[in-house]
Design a protein that fits this description.
This protein is of the alpha/beta class and 317 residues long. It has a domain of 194 residues: NAD(P)-binding Rossmann-like Domain (Rossmann fold). Helix content is 42%, strand content 17%. It has a 7-stranded parallel sheet with strand order 3-2-1-4-5-6-11, sandwiched between helices. Helix 4 links the parallel strand 4 and strand 5. Helix 8 packs across helix 11. The protein is globular, with a radius of gyration of 19 Å.
Length: 317
């Protein structure tokens, strides 16, 4: 079955913009709800994408959005917050999406989870994603679940954060320095979603998404600093000091960069269960994108997206 009308929850976010772009390129009609439509200017210009102001945590609104769609892609998730925040976004929203799909007769549902999601995991993030996953698995929908490791790309928070911090600090103290990650390119994640949409071989299956190489957090921080053109030392903090640092950072103004719950997540490596990792053939990922060539460009401000973003900022657009 071809799914032509797609609701993408979280479509204006980092990964969502790539998925929406691929979907519109294939001729799909895409609906993207957003609390702030003006923040989705990058999508509004796409020919078959409609961006609407909507609160997806309101049941009547969510039911209205899903009604008449062929498929729903749920990318909404949070990395920081209170226990109630995690329950509302990572657990209750998937449950409500399932209920609304059933009520509207929509069978196809793609769900973004996370590598390491586990209802018994050490962090709220992992437990809430695991519980949300379990709700999707228990449903009668034609679901597909994706579990990516840390996702890198021009707009990512992860590598860009360390690149920016390295410009300010001669020494970067970090917790969990020896934890291993397997970063995956955002465009590979987007391709996996879109390639699976009409492929019945992916129905009622979950897929880990990872890159071709494993790094420790210390290695990733050093790489980000070097690629951004800065020299800084990376110092591994003992767990007790790392938790104190995280507690302070939780209370700083602005977006949270590191929380104690993040440190709890890093009690486990964030790598694919099977090594060497090879994506399932039905996902159509024939050549996984390595980290260094792409990330070196955008961390240095040389990637086309970063250069154009700078031009727009200078022009106040």
């Amino acid at each position: 079955m071809q799914h032509k009308n797609i609701l993408v929850l979280g479509g204006s976010g980092f990964i969502g913009r790539y998925i929406v772009n691929l979907l519109t390129g294939r001729g799909c009609r895409v609906l993207v709800p957003s609390r702030r439509r003006d923040r989705a200017k990058h999508l509004i210009m796409l020919p078959t994408c409609d961006v609407v102001d909507a609160n997806i945590h309101d049941d009547a609104t969510l039911n209205h959005l899903i009604d008449g769609q062929d498929a729903v892609i749920n990318l909404v998730g949070i990395l920081h917050g209170t226990q109630r925040d995690f329950e509302r976004v990572n657990v209750e929203l998937p449950q409500r999406v399932i209920a609304a799909c059933k009520a509207s007769g929509v069978r196809r549902c793609l769900h973004m989870s996370a590598l390491g999601a586990d209802p018994s995991g050490p962090s709220l993030y992992q437990r809430s994603n695991g519980t949300g996953e379990a709700a999707v698995r228990a449903s009668s929908l034609d679901w597909t679940i994706f579990q990516p490791s840390v996702v890198f790309g021009v707009e990512d928070v992860f590598l860009n954060m360390f690149g920016k911090l390295s410009a300010l600090l001669p020494v970067l103290p970090i917790g969990g320095a020896s934890v291993r990650f397997q970063p995956v390119w955002v465009e590979d994640v987007a391709a996996a979603f879109v390639n699976s949409l009409d492929n019945e071989a992916t129905y009622r299956k979950s897929y880990e998404l990872a890159g071709p190489k494993i790094y420790t957090l210390r290695e990733l921080v050093r790489f980000a600093a070097r690629a951004a053109g800065h020299r800084c030392a990376v110092v591994a903090l003992p767990d007790s000091i790392a938790r104190l640092q995280a507690m302070v950072m939780e209370h700083l103004p602005g977006p949270t960069l590191l929380s104690r719950d993040n440190l709890d997540s890093m009690k486990r490596d964030n790598v694919a269960s099977q090594q060497p990792y090879r994506p399932a053939p039905e996902l159509g990922l024939h050549h996984l994108t390595p980290l260094e060539p792409e990330a070196s460009l955008y961390l240095a401000g040389m990637h086309p997206r970063t250069r154009f973003g700078g031009f727009r900022a200078k022009a106040h657009r």
